[in-house]
Amino acid sequence: MNVFRLVADLLHLGSIFILIARIHQTKSCSGISLKTQALYFLVFVTRYLDLFTSFVSIYNTLMKLFFLCSAGYIVYMMLQPLKATYDKALDTFRIEYVLAGAALFALVFPHKYTVVEILWSFSIYLEAVAIMPQLFMMTRTGEADNITSHYVFALGGYRALYIINWVYRYFTEDNYVDYIAWVAGVVQTGLYADFFYVYFTRVLKGKEFKLPV
Q1: What is the C-alpha to C-alpha distance for residues 210 and 195, in angstroms, rounded to an integer?
Q2: Which residues are CB-contacts of 158 (< 8 A; sequence separation ≥ 6)?
Q3: What tens-digit pLDDT sequence spans the chain (213 residues)?
Q4: Closest-CA residue to 85 (of 129, 38, 40, 22)
Q5: CA–CA separation, 75 and 52 (whole Å)
Q6: pTM for the whole structure
Q7: Is the CA virtual torsion 53, 123, 144, 198 positive or negative?
Q8: Of 54, 51, 49, which is closest to residue 122 (Cα–Cα)?
Q9: Which of these, 141, 181, 145, 149, lies nearest to 165 by C-alpha position?
Q10: From CA 43, how far away is CA 46, in angstroms rounded?
Q11: Distance (Å, whole) CA 48 – CA 202
Q12: Which of 75, 87, 90, 106 has the most CB atoms at less than 10 Å from its CB?
């Protein structure tokens, strides 16, 4: 644990609190991609199987349980109570391609050839592209409400800080290498590049999030 990872984890937590608060305040999931939320739920399910096999710390366990439960809760809210407000016609990203790609990479480039490690690798590759349906949805509409943009920014900031965390650990820990997480994290952060530009040039200046025409 270091300050970069701690702040990254807090940003990740914050992103979820922002999204849940937005859903409850507006009683709507308009502008939110169900496909992205379902992908994140799958990421957590396949990554946190070690909850049943090992114990690292109370912090680690509570964080994993929170991410699992909150992701499942968001998907449930979008499928049941707020189903009528979901913009299915705009959420058209073909997630079968990212699922197949993540599965292929996990089978070819896992940490180890065990079921748990293959699923862990799958979750890392899938998380790298899980935000794509949400970004694609925002691209289709050309805009997003500011609360949703804050949610996406917090997610992107969390991944960017994890890169700094990895650099810090590389220079301060002996034999620290994790190529799978590094490559996936860089790819994931790169997907936010256009979003970050609009966020910094518009939202932080009090304007609405709108993509350039």
Answers
A1: 10
A2: 8, 9, 11, 12, 15
A3: 789 999 999 999 999 999 999 999 999 999 999 999 999 999 999 999 988 888 889 999 999 999 999 999 999 999 999 999 999 999 999 999 999 999 999 999 998 899 999 999 999 999 999 999 999 999 888 888 888 899 999 999 998 999 999 999 999 999 899 999 999 999 999 999 888 888 888 888 888 888 765
A4: 22
A5: 23
A6: 0.92
A7: positive
A8: 49
A9: 181
A10: 6
A11: 37
A12: 106
Tokens at residue 81, please? 């109570």
Backbone angles phi and psi of 212, in degrees to 5: -60, 140
**Residue type at position 186:** V
Q: What six digits make up the tokens of 194?
A: 């256009």
